[in-house]
Amino acid sequence: MTGTDSGGAGGAGRGTDGNERTFAALPPAQGRAFAQTWWGRAWLKALEDTALDLGQLKKGRKQARDGAVGAVSVRPGRITAVVRDRDGTAHRSDVLLQQLSTEEWDRFLDMVVERAGHIAALLDRDMPPHLVEEAASAGVELLPGIGDLEPECACDAWDLCLHTAALCYQVARLLDEDPFVLLLMRGRGERQLLDELQVRSARAARTRRGPGGGEGSGEDSGDEAADGAAGIRADEAFAARDILPPLPPPPPVPQEPGLPPSLDTEAAPPPGIDADALEFLAADAAGRALRLLVDALSAGHERQPLDRELTPGQDAVRLAASCGDPLIAVRLAEGTGRQRAELDLAVEAWRHGGAAALAVLEEEWQPEPEALARAKADLAGAWEDGERPQVRAGVAGRWTVVGADVQLRFGRDGRWWPYRKVRGRWGAAGPSAADPASALAGVGAGA
User: Fold this and answer.
1) Alpha-carbon distance 184 to 193, whole Å?
2) Would you say 109 and 116 are in contact if contact means Cβ atoms under 8 Å apart?
3) Counting CB atoms within 10 angstroms of each CB, which of 60, 100, 213, 305 has the fewest?
4) What is the pLDDT of residues 297-354, one digit of tens each?
5) Cα distance from N-terminal residue to C-terminal residue, the chain
6) Which helix or strand (DSSP H or E) is residue 104 part of?
């Protein structure tokens, strides 16, 4: 196969040909888990279940976290990188994974074609569990199991060493971003897979249509006969979507929102109508409409969650955060029954995470036993040995760092929010993170 695989994890992949991709060295992974997706964690489970020496595994995780793994080359059956020791000594490290046979690939591709959702998920860089389960039912194991990862290293270790372990931990980050990395290791590159899926989809559509062409296979009528062009079924058009000409580009987005109507007229407004407030709200609505338009035209907008309707109190904080006018802030504080200092804290929280961040600031909730157990597990496993800061548990899913005016709050969304005490008040100090170490790293405490 010729050509170049495009894309890559986080845009970092560079294809040398259709069956090899090279990813630039990733930055250190301080304060974050190596795998966020379920398939990335499955890769690490296979690694950890295979390792005979857990000490080497732990050292390799530390090496990967410190950025000791160089560029990673991924090709069928093998991943390769140069891993450096603390003294700078470089070792070429490889990890081998059994490729799927031609028969296994045929079963996998036929299974994927039967479900349009499988193709859509892969194109969205997702690997839903039912895809893997159905592949396993067809006798195709995509994810590695115990003993499937075979290490080879220039350090001459006979088993998994810290260098090959570090490589595997780094690859988990690549898998998180792009499951096609796993499929390439199993033997097929992204472009080759998509081409084969397109051919099989078109063939399946023709089979469903039948030899006579199905409905509409008789004489051409109307404009079709006049033009001498036959129509095309919707399922065939969908199967050939990657080779159809692209849609025309959308019209250019305005650089700024339009001007709201001016209410400064000779006639006085009716009683109870605040013309200045109406002008402000109209300008805000125009600005929000422009942002919605920009979001709708951006790549990946269909995967973004829809905004929930805000309460009057939440919307007042949003208005104060977007305006910056102290006079308007005073009116918004009065209208919502807040002190000005309370509104300032709410605005700061909003700027770090919108309505979710505001809820963490203002609401007290007691996590359910399952959520509390998960939070405690996060706290126990987020740091390396000896690096975990001492924290004191408080109420409502809050942990304060001993000896520092810094606090971690566990939100209803399962994310961690950093807080700092300033002038006797706790205020949001940064955006949320999936684990407590990353959240604290943002405020420079316990990182």
Assistant:
1) 9
2) no
3) 305
4) 777 666 655 566 788 888 888 888 877 777 777 888 778 788 888 888 888 888 888 8
5) 47
6) helix 102-114
Q: Residues 257, 290: contact at Cβ < 8 Å?
A: yes
**Could you tell me if 12 and 22 are in contact, meaning their C-beta atoms sit under 8 angstroms apart?**
no
Three-state SS at 425: strand
Q: Which helix or strand (DSSP H or E) is residue 165 part of?
A: helix 162-177
352, burial (CB in 10 Å: exposed 0-12, middle 13-18, buried 19+): buried
pLDDT in tens, 220-230: 444 433 333 45
186, 76 in Cβ contact below 8 A?
yes
Is 286:257 a contact under the CB 8 Å cutoff? yes
Alpha helices in 259-311 (DSSP H): 275-297
**Partners of 433 in beta bridges:** 416
Cα separation, 63 vs 258, in Å, equals 53
- Six-digit token string for 185: 């290791």
CB atoms within 10 A of CB 214: 12
- Tell me which residue of 120, 24, 123, 14 sits closest to 72, measured CA to CA: 24
- Whether the predicted model's global pTM rises above the 0.70 cut: no
CA distances in angstroms from 265 to 276, 284, 293, listed in the order given: 12, 21, 31
